[in-house]
Amino acid sequence: MLAILAITTPIFLLISAGYVARWSGIIQREQMQGVGVFVLYCALPALVIRALTQHPLEEIFKLNYLIAYGLGSIVIFIGGLLLALKHQRQPLNASAMHALGMAAANSGFVGYPVAVMVIGSPAAVLLALNMVIETLIIIPMALILAEMGSHQGASVWKTVKKTALSLIKNPVLVGLLIGISIAVTGLKLPLPLFKAIDMLAEAAGPAALFVIGGALFGLQVKGMASDVGQLVVGKLLAHPLIIFIALYLMPGIDPLYLAGAVLFAASPMISIFPLLGQRYGLGGVSAAAMLVATVASFFTLSLIIWLMTLAGLMAF
Question: In terms of C-beta density within 10 A (0-12 exposed, 13-18 middle, 19 or more buried), how is residue 199 classed?
């Protein structure tokens, strides 16, 4: 157990450092946002490009993995949507955000830093694969349903088109396309350019964790226990459980990929969740859920790593 805490504790110390930096006033909100922009637009795309150019494509794009992780995430998304619509009687836009909070992990800012410390370099490959599912399936589904529920008078086709145009500008998706293009063409990057990409990629993990900590400062959790509890349990426990089942039942899955997928799925909700929640009717619940999920994930991730160690999926 001490070996597991040696992995998870530094991660949450970096998150705490970001929180303390904002609390103490050393870094202002705008400056922290600048670090976040660096991570999103520079470090994470570089990380994806490096992963895709260091491995043959046949080693990276595992169709069975994409199917299993995609189906698992869709199952959680539909479950969260029905729970909010039928049980809580929430409108469609808020229900779509509820489902997004359960089904879209913070792969870049939390999932990757955790996974890379546990399974090593394959974590970057899994980041690229998981981002395909999240940016091309889960996020578009949530945004399309949310737009439809907002009754803005736009047709379904216009909503789909608007969502697609927004996703095309996603910097991680752009990095994914660049990496695939380089891998397919066999282009060899000049050494200075590769070293620059490598240096940016190395910065992704610690900088992302620092930003998450800063983003948590000022969030409040009051009078939202039921809604927040459902989101946190759905994201930190139900999502990784369903992903584990989906990958376990899928033939030909590397046990290391299975372990990594569970760690990604066990991460808190996607970083833009509070922003989208505010826009589409989930208000303070989304921000509170992000705060509680991030704090709780220290314990749940440690527990999941311990359980997978007992199951022989990883060793320390």
Answer: exposed
DSSP string, 225-292: HHHHHHHHHIIIIIHHHHHHHHHHHSTT--HHHHHHHHHHHTSPBPTTHHHHHHHTT-HHHHHHHHHH
Answer yes or no: are the C-beta atoms of 130 and 69 closer than 8 Å.
yes
Kindly report the pTM of this predicted structure: 0.80
Residue 301 neighbours by CB under 8 Å, 6+ apart: 8, 114, 263, 266, 267
Residue type, 160: V
Torsion angle of the four alpha carbons 232, 242, 144, 136, in this order, in degrees rounded to the nearest 10: 120
Q: Which two tokens stand for residue 90?
A: 């929430």
Residue 268 has which token pair?
A: 């808190």
SS3 at position 168: helix
Please enumerate, as own/partner, the contacts of 192-199 that have beta carbons within 8 Å and a separation of 24 or more: 194/53, 197/46, 197/49, 197/50, 198/46, 198/50
Give 168-226 pLDDT, tens digit per residue: 777 877 887 888 888 788 788 888 998 999 899 888 778 877 887 887 787 666 666 77
